[in-house]
Amino acid sequence: MDVQEIISDKLAAPLGIYSQGIKVTAPGSMVFLSGFTSRDAAGNVVGVGDIEAQTRNVLESMQHALAEAGATLADVVKMTLYIRDMNEFSKIHAVRAEFFTQPYPACAMLEVSRMVSPESLIEIDAIAVLAD
């Protein structure tokens, strides 16, 4: 699988840990992850009130789900982050930097007013591509 970051001098530089676009060239499979919130295997919210702990838990949970499909976070090409407070932007990206290297996945981050659990501060969904 060949993953190429799309970079153009006609676009503003990314403000965080993401690429403006990703081109994937490969025969392969796609993995679509539903939105993950910060929960343990019993369904309890992990990291109540702590955006860094919740972001880390979500990304670790995504690693487990991807592993079941034979994938890793390195195979993720697109993510959408839903967060409760855009003021947490830099903390979220600092944690993401622990999990991702370039080329970063294409990404959108949106502030939302509510989530499935009032204690949830972040939810992330993703698309990964696996070479055959």
CATH homologous superfamily placement: RutC-like
| Amount of helix | 10-25%
CATH topology: 60s Ribosomal Protein L30, Chain: A
Give the terminus-to-terminus CA distance.
8 Å
- Main β-sheet, in a few words? 4 strands, mixed
User: How many E strands?
Assistant: 6
Output the number of helix runs: 2
**Structurally, how many domains make up the residues?**
1
Unreliable sequence segments = none
H and E string: EEEHEHEE
- How much is the radius of gyration in Å? 15 Å
Shape: globular
Estimated structural class: alpha+beta
CATH class: Alpha Beta
- Which strands sit side by side, in order, in the main sheet? 3-6-4-5
In the CATH hierarchy, the architecture is 2-Layer Sandwich
GO molecular function: deaminase activity
InterPro entries: RutC-like_sf, YjgF/YER057c/UK114
Organism: Propioniciclava coleopterorum
Protein name: RidA family protein
Task: Characterise this structure.
This protein is an alpha+beta fold and 132 residues long. It has one domain (2-131): RutC-like (60s Ribosomal Protein L30, Chain: A, 2-Layer Sandwich), CATH 3.30.1330.40. It has two helices and six strands, in the order βββαβαββ. It has helices at 51-68, 89-99, and strands at 2-5, 22-25, 28-36, 76-83, 106-111, 122-131. The strands form two sheets. The protein has a four-stranded mixed beta sheet with strand order 3-6-4-5. Helix 1 (51-68) packs parallel to helix 2 (89-99). The longest helix is centred in the middle third of the chain and has 18 residues, at 51-68. Belongs to the RutC family. It comes from Propioniciclava coleopterorum. This is RidA family protein. One of its GO terms (molecular function) is deaminase activity.
